[in-house]
């Protein structure tokens, strides 16, 4: 067992707008050791980004209500003051946001934007240190240091993503949150960015939370996986447990793997998961997946399933509970 870095305990997040309450995250529990890589997988609207923003205490102040705890090195970030969070963000926890095209400020050079992060967390250091650190971090992500005087519009999408990674790693954080870091990139550039992130993670020993839709990416990059659906963790475990077809799995996870094309099997059509994820403002009773589940039983429509955990492999499904009882 490694040293605990992050513990999320019974986290729930609700958004209230115009009297409507949306249950975005519901009783999530996660753990992450130092230097470990966790992949969070799920459809759009599953609550992945809300969970990530909660770790940085960046949830909307007036519309988001939270319950539970998010402990980072023993500190509950949900109850930390803004002054305390300013010391944590950037230096201890950094985030790569979804769209590099809009995340960079177009009126500042990339060197200024990286240097600002370094300067905020090293106020006692001089300009020479900041410039040297900017050069180091640009070289680290494969961008010539002399390009620090250029503006974001001078760079391609893949290069912008590298700059976003440079900003996130500028102060060698203990935890890096990557929110779909390859979404806007073509396949070749995706492979380059992920390869670079992997090598940097090994070199710096940074723990990573990777939020993605891409199960192939998770298989090649992560140590552990958590699958989210309607704000809940419905299955989690080591990468080997989740990707082993001989293990029991949640029907949603079975559906995810069933919708991936296989080069060893000839078929005319993929097998998608029927239906849509429920509206977080009107979640169904019982298991949240039951309206789409091909194995739905009567109990699934009325009672929320308990989590079954075998060797740290968690599955939240009535079928697994019944097998354990048998």
What is the molecular shape? globular
How big is the Rg? 21 Å
Question: Average pLDDT across residues?
Answer: 90
H-E string: EEEHEEHEHHHHEHEHEEHHEEH
Structural class: alpha/beta
Tell me the strand percentage band. Answer: 15-25%
Residues in helix, %:
25-40%
Q: What is the strand arrangement across the widest sheet? A: 6-7-8-3-9-10-12-11
Major beta-sheet overview: 8 strands, mixed
> Which residue ranges are poorly predicted, with pLDDT under 50 across at least 5 consecutive positions?
none
Strand count: 12
The N- to C-terminal Cα distance equals 31 Å
Treating each run of at least 4 consecutive H or I residues as one helix, how many helices? 11
Question: Could you explain how this protein is built, in words?
Answer:
There is one protein chain. Helices cover 32% and strands 25% of the residues. It is of the alpha/beta class and 326 residues long. A hairpin with a 2-residue loop joins strand 11 and strand 12. Helix 4 packs across helix 5.
Outline of the structure:
The protein has 326 residues and is of the alpha/beta class.
């Amino acid at each position: 067992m490694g040293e605990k870095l992050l513990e999320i305990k019974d986290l729930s997040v609700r958004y209230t707008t115009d009297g409507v309450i949306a249950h975005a995250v519901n009783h999530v529990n996660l753990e992450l050791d130092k230097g470990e890589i966790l992949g969070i997988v799920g459809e759009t609207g599953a609550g992945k980004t809300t969970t990530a923003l909660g770790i940085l205490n960046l949830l909307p102040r007036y519309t988001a209500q939270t319950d539970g705890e998010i402990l980072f090195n023993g500190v509950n970030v949900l109850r930390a003051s803004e002054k305390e969070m300013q010391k944590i963000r950037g230096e201890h926890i950094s985030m790569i946001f979804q769209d590099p095209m809009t995340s960079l400020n177009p009126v500042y050079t990339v060197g200024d934007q990286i240097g600002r992060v370094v300067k905020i967390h090293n106020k006692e250091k001089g300009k020479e240190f900041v410039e040297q650190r900017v050069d180091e971090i640009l070289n680290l992500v494969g961008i010539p240091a002399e390009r620090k005087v250029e503006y974001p519009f001078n760079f391609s999408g893949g290069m912008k993503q590298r700059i976003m990674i440079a900003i996130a790693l500028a102060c060698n954080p203990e935890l890096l949150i990557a929110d779909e870091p390859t979404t806007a990139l073509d396949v070749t550039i995706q492979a380059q960015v992920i390869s670079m992130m992997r090598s940097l993670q090994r070199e710096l020993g940074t723990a990573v939370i990777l939020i993605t839709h891409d199960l192939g990416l998770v298989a090649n990059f992560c140590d552990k996986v958590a699958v989210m659906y309607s704000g809940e963790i419905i299955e989690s475990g080591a990468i080997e447990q989740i990707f082993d077809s001989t293990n029991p799995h949640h029907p949603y996870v079975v559906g995810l793997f069933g919708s991936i094309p296989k080069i060893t099997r000839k078929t005319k059509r993929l097998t998608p998961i029927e239906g849509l994820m429920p509206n977080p403002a009107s979640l169904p009773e019982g298991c949240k997946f039951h309206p789409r589940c091909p194995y739905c039983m009567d109990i699934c429509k009325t009672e929320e399933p308990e989590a079954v955990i075998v060797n740290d492999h968690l599955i939240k499904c009535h079928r697994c509970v019944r097998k354990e009882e048998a």
